[in-house]
């Protein structure tokens, strides 16, 4: 009820948030990234997951929805201007805190963080993923007179290739893989669109691990994986085809082809410090993989087609 009492206040602050910034202030062109950069300086008890989920909303709305996820033992709010005490009358301390934090600009001394802030993992990962997708600052140029980089201009001049069919075998083009100083493929996870249009397969990859980047595969060490499990360093390969319905000959051919793929993925994951799990839809499929290699980590997802 206290949060609802602040609704009118937050609407007012949303309108204020569009005011012109100071000339000295560098404003990120992407509002979502601006919210993440602002939130990463605060202590979050949930690791920042709420902020990442709400990052595309206006800052006052994000604050309203994620206020309870703050580590309130590590943060203090001070209404240094007196504006919030009047505007949030009847909402007590919760209303004052919301008002102070949701302001378009934080006044000096209004928000005090006690101790050292441990950067929220989810927020930092979201920022890192954005930087990997936008490695060149000039690529973020706005459409109003900002010069676009030669890399982006070249990309715009090239015709976009469209697959002749949207079948499961087609995979979208993979973006250039970041490399480290040795020239080897980087171990930083790079989200890329799911390969193909196999909706049951993609849904299983998103929900079962669950996927840290829903709707996306991930490149690690130059190899594509179906999912990076949220909260842990575990990469997944998901299999949802109807293995049990194949005859013995086809099952043998399929399992040998799969094993070569899985062995390559497992080595790439291990080289980058990730665990590797294979998700299959049935016990029969799991047992067939175990007959080739008992060291594989295979989990029955139960995902159906």
Automatic annotation (TrEMBL):
Composition skew (Basic and acidic residues), residue ranges: 149-163
Pfam families, A to Z: DUF6310 (PF19829)
Highest taxon in the source lineage: Bacteria
Region (Disordered): 136-182
Keyword Ribonucleoprotein: no
Stored PROSITE patterns: PROKAR_LIPOPROTEIN (PS51257)
Domain called DUF6310: residue spans: 180-303
Protein name per Swiss-Prot or TrEMBL: DUF6310 domain-containing protein
Species the sequence originates in: Stigmatella erecta
């Amino acid at each position: 009820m206290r949060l609802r009492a602040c609704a009118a206040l937050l609407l007012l602050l949303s309108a204020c948030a569009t005011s012109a910034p100071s000339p000295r202030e560098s404003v990120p062109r992407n509002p979502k990234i601006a919210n993440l950069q602002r939130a990463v300086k605060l202590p979050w008890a949930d690791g920042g997951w709420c902020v990442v989920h709400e990052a595309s909303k206006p800052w006052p709305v994000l604050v309203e929805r994620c206020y309870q996820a703050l580590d309130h033992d590590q943060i203090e709010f001070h209404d240094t201007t007196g504006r919030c005490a009047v505007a949030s009358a009847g909402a007590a301390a919760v209303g004052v805190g919301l008002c102070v934090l949701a302001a378009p600009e934080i006044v000096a001394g209004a928000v005090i963080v006690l101790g050292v802030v441990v950067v929220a993992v989810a927020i930092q990962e979201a920022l890192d993923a954005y930087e990997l997708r936008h490695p060149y600052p000039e690529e973020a140029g706005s459409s109003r007179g900002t010069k676009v980089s030669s890399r982006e201009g070249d990309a715009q001049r090239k015709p976009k290739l469209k697959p002749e069919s949207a079948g499961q075998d087609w995979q979208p083009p993979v973006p250039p893989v970041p490399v480290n100083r040795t020239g080897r493929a980087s171990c930083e996870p790079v989200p890329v669109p799911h390969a193909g249009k196999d909706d049951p397969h993609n849904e299983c990859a998103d929900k079962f691990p669950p996927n840290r980047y829903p709707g996306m595969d991930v490149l690690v060490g130059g190899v594509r994986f179906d999912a990076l499990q949220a909260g842990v360093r575990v990469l997944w390969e998901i299999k949802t085809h109807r293995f049990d319905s194949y005859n013995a000959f086809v099952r043998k051919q399929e399992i040998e082809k799969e094993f070569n793929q899985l062995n390559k993925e497992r080595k790439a994951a291990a080289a980058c410090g990730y665990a590797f799990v294979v998700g299959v839809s049935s016990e029969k499929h799991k047992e067939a993989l175990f007959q080739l290699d008992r060291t594989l980590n295979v989990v029955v997802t139960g995902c159906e087609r």
